[in-house]
Amino acid sequence: MWIQFCAAAASLFAAVYIPGLLAAYGFGLRQFSLLALAPACSVAVYCIEGIVLDWMAIRASWFMLVVPYFLLAALLASFRWLHSDKCRGCGHRKESVDTFVGPVILYICFGLLFATTMYLLPLDGPTSSVQTYDNVFHYGLIKSFSDSGSWSIIKTSLYLSEPSSSVPMQDVAYYPAAWHLLCSLAISMADISVGMAANVVNFFFVSVVYPLGMLALIHSMFNGSRSVVLLGSLVTCAFSVFPWMMFDVWPLYPNALSMMLLPGLLHCFIEATSTDGSVVGRVRYALLFVVYCMCQVFAQPNTIFSAAVILAPYCIYRCAEFGASGGGTRCLKMTKAVVMGTGFALFVCVIWIACFRLPFMQPIVRFRWAPIQTLSDSITNIIQLSFVGSIAQPLLSVLVAVGAAYVLFRRQYLWMLGSYIFSAFLYAVSATMPECELRHLLCGFWYTDPYRLAALAGMCAILLAVCGLFCIFSFVMSVVSMYQKAHNLRNLPSLCVTGLVLSCLLLGWYNVKEGLSPLNVMAFNAEQLNSEENLGKPYNSEMAVFMNQVKKMVPEDSLIINAPYDGSLYANGVENVNFYYRSMSGYGSSKEAHSSALIREKLSSYVQDPEVQQTVSDMGASYLLILSRDMDRSTSIFPDFVARQWRGIYSVTDDTPGFTKIAEHGEMRLYKIGQE
């Protein structure tokens, strides 16, 4: 199965990068920008194509998405190549091939190494899936996309392939489903399961897309300094809080995708506001910044606000710098700098408040999330980089502290410290502050979720750690050089650099106090989630064995009425079955169909109630599946479970008229409806 996993990952790489590179080249990008922005171009185009194909009532597939995009991108690249002489001098920094290829290989190698160690090894197989609240919807939507061929992010539902009579919930709506579309694309190309597709997309983005995006960002931020760029590869994937925590906690797969695209967005903005490039180059990056923002709307819009948190101090610094660049006395320059910087800060506050007041944002910004720790614990977490219970990393804490001290003396990078302080403050507010208007105003764009804000703080910490590592590297090299000259030694500098690299790799991943690396922690968490005794796994291997038996007995596409909170919610996403109930919540609300409520409450009276018989006939259901009757277990796992709402299903027994038992294992049952 791992061979199939690798083949699917290679197919996804080709689908994202080949047309993406052609499109980015055709748009005039080169080298690091080319690699960083190609994935965003592909994601944006595929999401748009999904919307258009659905509007035209054409079934989506990898062929319908990739081939038209490839042809268009190839045409654009060909036009660019034919007119390359006229397009030179558009504001790009010139880089040699060696300067370009070396860092790319280094970042990809480290990305693959860390992703294999941190993501793949803790899995119990390539199809492994974590049974958490959000994944009920995520895996279900992937299956709905794949079954229906409708990949539109503005018309998402768990019932896209079902007729209206078989839909218990009217839940068709916009959802930032770029991650789900990519998973469906992988399924279409490689014919893999939903669980494997999710792992393929996650692994591909965290091992390739994210490192190359960070490469472009670090390159643009530090003016192409080769030493800084190479050192950045050591810390890009080194922080447990980001990206690894986003795969380990909920996990937050769509948000992780958008955050892994964030470095490219920041790169576009910095290049667009650079004073080194030409006007044409800056306009090009400004347009690509808009494309990237659109891509984030498709992936997870709160990342746009994450970008605002990072870039606001940068913009304030640039405004102040512009104010101080004119003529006049020193006092006048300083006054103009303060006025322009303060003015932009006030402008950001006004925009922030305006967005907070938008009506369509209210379900998001008003979402309630209970505090998870005390203020003192939060401060300790920030200092130790052990956000929301992730493992403390002492060496990286030192690098961040050194980087913070370094930027105090290099004012052009001082904004990075401001970004980190702001993001850490938001994390502390979300993690510790009780329910109040201020908490929603500051953190509401992230659902007041401390885990998402911890990931944002982690990304800001990475930039400071790059500065800190460069500072230490420069100091070590200067000392080594003096010692080398004094003792006429030749190989000492290379040995010291090797030692520094190994120290960062080994010590940075080791927790002195607990004796655990992040890998140990992630493997432990994965083991707990996959434990048969743990209530965190409602759909266990015994149920999976029974489901394999059910699939052999039930005709394909036959509708099965189920008791969702018995574990079948998770079976829906990972098994090729057609369940009636697929949603985690909403039962008993106004959006539930009358037929659904009737089945939940009165199915056991099938023989006596003609309305129930007619409803079952209209929806085309022929089977009833019950995986567990343990009400206490369901209540412990699912906060939305209300036992009395499902009495019509759980009251069905082997002796109930109208239901014929055709398969059993322990308390698990499969009934045929309508036969004695």
Helix content class = 55-70%
Number of DSSP helices? 27
Q: How big a fraction of the residues is strand?
A: under 5%
Mean pLDDT: 86
Write down the Rg: 27 Å
Number of strands: 5
The side-by-side strand order for the widest beta sheet comes to 2-1-3-5-4
Q: Overall 3D geometry?
A: elongated
Class per helix and strand makeup: mainly alpha
Biggest sheet overview: 5 strands, mixed
Q: Stretches where pLDDT falls below 50 for ≥5 residues?
A: 88-92, 510-536
Distance between the termini: 43 Å
Question: Would you give an account of this structure?
Answer:
The protein contains 27 helices and five strands. The protein has a five-stranded mixed sheet. With 676 residues, the protein is mainly α. 47% of the residues are buried.
Key terms for this structure?
5 strands; elongated; five-stranded mixed beta sheet; 676 residues; 27 helices; 4% strand
Q: TL;DR of this structure?
A:
By secondary structure, this protein is mostly helical. It has helices spanning 2-26, 31-55, 62-82, 97-120, 133-148, 178-190, 194-221, 226-235, 240-248, 253-272, 279-299, 302-324, 330-357, 362-365, 375-384, 394-409, 414-432, 437-443, 450-487, 492-507, 518-529, 541-553, 568-574, 594-602, 610-619, 631-637, 647-650, and strands at 559-562, 578-579, 621-626, 659-665, 668-673. It is built from 27 helices and five strands.
